[in-house]
Records
---
Amino acid sequence: MKARVYIMLKTGVLDPQGEAVRHALGSLGFDGVNSVRQGKVIELDLKDGTTEATINDMCERLLANTVIESYRVEIL
């Protein structure tokens, strides 16, 4: 069983890495980019029968900093 976890900074949290990417895109001539939010994707190869609740617990306890990040789990 595989799962994919998408982690993004919450709305209102400054994203300096995303801002650096936006600035670099502008420097390369891509002027139409108003903002960039950068996140991360974690793919998990799990034992069959692992519940979504267990994956959420992994996110809450380790994978995402839930104070400043939100996450979404996709079972593949």
---
Amino acid sequence: MQVPLQITFRNMTTSEALESYIRERAEKLDHICDTIVSCRVVVEAPPKHQRKGGLFHASIDISLPHETIVINREPDLHKSYHDAHVVVRDVFDTAQRKLRDFVSRQKGEVKAHEEMPQGTISELYPYEDYGRILTGAGDDIYFHRNSLINADFGDLVLGAEVRFVEEQGNDGPQASSVRVVKP
């Protein structure tokens, strides 16, 4: 990091153990991405209640060249953020994932999704709940009415363009997901 790590504790006394843990986790972030300009961590204790304690809150602001990553861990009814270490762990886990995604994008390692094959409906058998797709390569693919994603089987017409996911069935190739291409 070009700027030293900033750690702020709000509504609580500084905890050496928690501060040490934050520095350790921040160092790991620096190993994931060596272009981090600055990192600011805020840990906030819940307001003091007489009957029951509240939940901790933590956030991280990571400044990178041309981008800023902000992660907040708000208290949530489904989370156990009664312990500051737990909320800090979760916020750093999320920061690590976001930084890895950032580094992957910078290196051009973004996943390329394979295009779904395309074809036209060549046969329909409404009383038997299936049809057939003819692909551009001349393959004949079976599909069942339950494979349709964005249309009703009764609304299909011969010649309609579809995209599909092909898999090997017991009796040959079949489409497990069929999406009608909207013009």
---
Amino acid sequence: MFRHKGKARRPVHNLKLAALLSFVAGIVNVAGFFSVKVLTTNVTGHFAYFADEVIKQHIENAGVFLLYILAYLSGAFVSNTLVEATQKVNPRYTDAVPVFTEIVLLTGVALLPTATIQQMAQLVAGILLFTMGLQNAMVTRISNAVVRTTHLTGLFTDLGIELSQLLFYRKPEHRKKLKASVRLRFAIISFFFLGCVAGGVGFTWLHTRILFLAIAILFTGIIYSDIRYRILLLKKNLSENKAGPPLRR
């Protein structure tokens, strides 16, 4: 799911990754909105608010929305920087480093008292936007830009186009590819929605501690991916050992 790259990556890997991280994004989105009244999984709306505040000459308020935008951008920048740096040191942990960075940041927010969150609302919103920028850049890189997990506007656009193409494309190979892409879009949208519902219901009881559910899912995903990778590597080694050394001529 996390480790498969390039030609080794199949649609099922993207489907698992999309389901996992879209659910996490849904939880973070609702937790951020309920706790600090800020949408924390994309920056489209923040651009509109930024422009509105600039026109009204509310420079301080405009600066807050600009910081939200830059927080998301910084998350994406740091995510790829971590990947590139880790690739040079130990490629095995390339994707684990951004995931654990996200886990640490979400844990920090989840542990904050409610009063502190209210007092530091803008900082908390910035941290959550940073984590979502981090996550979206990571999943974009892993899936070769096939999967996006933190905002739905582009997904609904792509889904509408592909559903329309199903009416016209008749070649089996084209339809197979389209159906796989449609399933992926539906998975992202569905799990984002489920994450929002779970986050909303959980927030009424746990407040921002509902983020621990997102943290647990991230932990589960990275551990599952690592175990799966080790099993496949072991099977490959056993198969090569059984085949024996190449014959000499």
